[in-house]
Amino acid sequence: MAGKTVSYEELISGYEFPPVNYELSASFVSKYLKAVDSGGDGFVPPLAITACAIAAMTGSFSMPSGTIAIHASQELEFFKLVPIGVTIECHTRVAQKIARGKMSMLILEQEIFDKDKEKVQSARATIALPT
Amino acid sequence: MLTEIQEGKAFDSVVRHITQDKIKLYAEASGDFNPIHIDESFAAKTPLGGTIAHGMLNLAYVSEMMTSAFGRSWLSGGKLRAKFKEPARPGDTLTINGKIDCVEQKDDVSYANCSFECRNQKGEMIVTGETIVKFSSDKK
Q1: Which chain A residues have a beta carbon less than 8 Å from that of B59?
Q2: Which of A65, B11, B25, B115 could form an SS bridge with A35, CB 3.0 to 4.6 Å?
């Protein structure tokens, strides 16, 4: 999980969060499949990997009290099958931080690698923060 | 899985009922404990007026539909672009539909360009988007 957290105000375009490692254990995958009502097929569902990456990102910064974060859009690309038990490394950077009136937008780019440093997934999330 | 990958082919729909318990389960599995999803009293005081499902929970259902249609081709070579239009709330029943819009071939690889939408029981659009799946040409 994430170590040091930064405040939302400290996030600037280009900021890179420290990489975070996750073990995609059988118990994690089982819990995830139960939560999404899915049967599974012996591999880690790609959206379970994305969920880890998003949790890593959201756990890495703190928002002003009372602020809500709303997921506005998401882009994903999957590059390879990921067997259960693999440890992944999530890299997240702030692509853009935009303030428009009473709305802030945070655009985050993520790249996820396996233990052989091969990319398994890339993602781009837009988070809206009404203030 | 689809036996034929051709333009206009619709995928089997996925229908899921959202409950606060399911949202809580997803929060525990994913580690995303944003209070807008799990803290009913906090969420009631926000402009959203109550808790909402994680956007990634809705997308998990989209991915399930794509996995049913394309299997490993989706898991190892899929691309997705989604816009969250409205929040899904506890009590909602979501229906996810999708189809192949066109099939393209570049070099020796084929690509299925697909569209999907997720609507609630009132017909309101919750998520909309596109996917691309790379697959071997012998499936066409």
Answers
A1: 47, 50, 74
A2: B25
> How does pLDDT run along chain B (140 residues), one tens digit per residue?
888 889 999 999 999 999 999 999 999 999 989 899 999 999 999 999 999 999 999 999 999 999 999 999 999 999 999 999 999 999 999 999 999 999 999 888 999 999 999 999 999 999 999 999 998 766 55
How many structural domains comprise chain A? 1
Q: What is the spatial distance between Cα B121 and Cα B139, in angstroms, rounded to a whole number?
A: 35
User: Which DSSP letter does residue A113 get?
Assistant: E
* A89 alpha-carbon distance from chain centroid: 11
Closest residue on chain A to B19 (Cα): A35
Classify the complex by whether its ipTM is higher than 0.90, answering yes or no: yes
Residues of B in contact with A36 (CB under 8 A): 26, 29, 57, 60-61, 64
Q: Which residues of A touch B22 (CB under 8 A)?
A: 35, 37
Where exactly are the structural domains of chain B?
14-19+54-139
